[in-house]
Write a structure and sequence with these properties.
The protein is α/β, with parallel strands linked by helices. Helices cover 64% and strands 7% of the residues.
């Protein structure tokens, strides 16, 4: 864009007045409301300055703004405000406008990040709009991820919310939606600290089995948070016994498996039973764990629940693998696994997330 001017547009609200409207473009007529809308929606703002008698201003409207793709971009991705310099000379002077038409490009927070003097054909203008969206706008895929993260939080799926929020923050910028994403991550990290503190209190009170269950829940629900990392270290200490404690640890693990059984978390129960058999096969707890596993596998309804839980786990692992390929610069492999999730688990949450991620990887240029 032409020479940048970091002028807070909010200072110009003192000069606000009504403007005329042009066909198709949704021109805002209240400057203060337009500024608030840009901030609330995370959309960049464009102020177009001209006069009624200006020939090139009319050309801008009839040759550039009338192009369907331009109109669609402006209406869907921007907050646009039209200023008649004859009717609002104070505002035009505040913008230091010398040429008509002139366009001022602003971030959602109201800072002018560039301006254009004179007429501009449709294609160069479209490129400028794409550039503005990429630099200070909110890509549609980013907004989708943030909304899905909020939905996941409400549904109690904090792990998925954290994954989506970290995707929102990938480019390290400071868009309004990214500020909101950071705040939501901070809130989730505070929740995670609560689980960690609760587990440490249980350890101090000698409630080791309950503490281990709390730490496992912390690791599943808040992966990658500082509290989860520290909780893993504590869990490792609790599950690395001296030889004389083997029977006690196996018994504790069996109690956790029975708790999973009672709460119908059959996959988690089988995981624990297999761990007991593998690590403490010489204990009495291993015999009871084997009986518990046989009981689950002998029940068709429970076995089906295990398969469903395994499918969800596999889908989540494929999604994580796809993200790993993206981070390693191999989007083709990522697409392969995302399509696999969509095909193998139709109608599931993981399939919907895979579909959204595929759209993001194949997104239109305005999101780049």
């Amino acid at each position: 864009m032409n020479g940048s001017r970091f002028v807070p547009l909010v200072l110009l609200a003192l000069f606000v007045a009504r403007t005329t409207t042009a066909a198709d473009i949704t021109w805002r007529t209240d400057y203060a409301k337009a500024l608030r809308e840009a901030s609330a929606t995370g959309k960049p703002m464009i102020v177009v300055v001209g006069t009624e008698e200006c020939h090139w201003c009319r050309q801008l409207e009839t040759r550039t703004f009338s192009v369907a793709e331009i109109t669609k971009l402006l209406n869907e991705r921007f907050v646009v405000y039209k200023l008649d310099a004859n009717r609002q000379p104070e505002l035009a002077m505040a913008l230091r406008t010398q040429v008509y038409p002139s366009m001022y490009y602003a971030s959602p927070s109201g800072n002018i990040v560039g301006h254009q003097e004179g007429f501009l054909e449709a294609e160069p203008f479209r490129k400028k709009l794409v550039e503005l969206i990429a630099s200070v706008g909110t890509p549609e895929s980013m907004q989708r991820d943030y909304e899905l993260a909020n939905k996941a939080v409400k549904e109690g799926d904090q792990a998925q919310a954290l994954k989506l929020l970290r995707q929102v923050l990938e480019d390290g910028k400071n868009r309004p939606v990214q500020v909101q994403a950071r705040k939501l991550i901070d809130d989730l990290e505070i929740e995670a600290r609560g689980y960690e503190a609760k587990a440490r209190d249980m350890v101090g009170r000698g409630r080791k089995s309950e503490a281990m269950a709390e730490l496992m829940k912390l690791d599943r629900s808040y992966p990658g948070t500082p509290a989860a990392r520290e909780g893993k270290q504590l869990l490792l200490k609790l599950t690395t016994p001296v030889e004389s404690d083997r029977a006690a640890v196996a018994s504790d693990m069996l109690e956790l498996a029975r708790r999973d059984y009672r709460s119908r978390q059959f996959l988690a129960c089988l995981d624990r039973c297999e761990a007991i058999a593998a690590q403490y096969g010489d204990t009495n707890a291993a015999i009871d764990a084997d009986k518990l596993a046989i009981e689950i596998k002998a029940n068709p309804e429970w076995s089906k629940e295990v398969c469903d839980q395994l499918a969800n786990r596999l889908g989540s692992m494929y999604l994580s693998l796809a993200e790993t390929y993206v981070s390693k610069g191999n989007p083709e492999q990522a697409v392969l696994y995302l399509e696999r999730v969509a095909t193998m688990f139709p109608g599931s949450r993981n399939a919907e997330l895979a579909r959204m991620r595929l759209l993001r990887l194949k997104d239109v240029p305005t999101d780049r």
